[in-house]
């Protein structure tokens, strides 16, 4: 396979991929700092290391397509178009948050961007995704529903039920498994009889493939093909994105179940510096430009923290608003 970036995408798009990944990384690392300071409380699951999946996948979609995620959802929301200021304010629990401070880290939601939510319950997004795709099919909309989830969620009953119905009803769903090899601290081979996860979809007659989730270009190209296939045939497809989280499952997890050598091997495949090296090597960008991009992202995240910290807390009466049942 030709590893050259030339002709794959316009230079501006490649630089946008780089900037989006840097922004997501800086946002997540800042979240870790704010959590340590007590500004962010509750559960916090960071996406550092997995940025290529969110950036590559989302870039390959149309804005009208739906996206759903799990509890590690900050990057998907931001890349989809959500304001980092409002996302950070949500994590701070402030009234200016994307969900008025009521959702927190695990329940981001931005319908104006067709980001239909992060879900704290493992596997909770599967039936919602299938339901959205069913609605799109009934309305004859040219829309793909993309459902992100982790490897651990594949052992939930909702996963099997949802894949079955998606295939039986021929629904336009693209399932994207972010296989980072650990469900909290349990390795895939200790939880799944078939550790090559994409093979598990054959029982539902759903085509699948495994993609390098540390390569943003590979993720973009695979998603572009898969989304086009789903849109044309109005049938589900499955991508297993092999990736790695650089931090523990959550901020409460020191990740001592992983060896330092394993961690270093995956750090060497960090999608951000690897793309940077390719951009420089092929003359698409220079070191100075990439440093400017990095500085711009740092400033953007600092502004998000300032915005969140200076935002008001929700009014007490807000507890009675947005109640539907």
Task: Name some characteristics of this structure.
alpha/beta, Rossmann fold, 6-stranded parallel β-sheet, two-stranded antiparallel sheet, 44% helix, globular
Task: Explain what this protein looks like in three dimensions.
This protein has 325 residues and is of the alpha/beta class. It has a single domain (19-301), classed as Thiamin diphosphate (ThDP)-binding fold, Pyr/PP domains (Rossmann fold, 3-Layer(aba) Sandwich). It has eleven helices and eight strands. A hairpin with a 2-residue loop joins β5 and β6. α1 (11-36) crosses α3, α1 packs across α11 (287-310) and α2 packs parallel to α3 (74-80). The radius of gyration is 19 Å and the shape is globular. It starts with 10 loop residues before the first helix and ends in a 15-residue tail after the last helix. The mean pLDDT is 97. Residues 20-314 form the Dehydrogenase E1 component domain. GO terms for molecular function: pyruvate dehydrogenase (acetyl-transferring) activity. The pyruvate dehydrogenase complex catalyzes the overall conversion of pyruvate to acetyl-CoA and CO(2). Its EC number is 1.2.4.1.
The ordered string of helix (H) and strand (E) elements is: HHEHHEHEHEEEHEHEHHH
Largest beta-sheet characterization: 6 strands, parallel
* Total strands: 8
Per CATH, the superfamily is Thiamin diphosphate (ThDP)-binding fold, Pyr/PP domains
Count of helical regions: 11
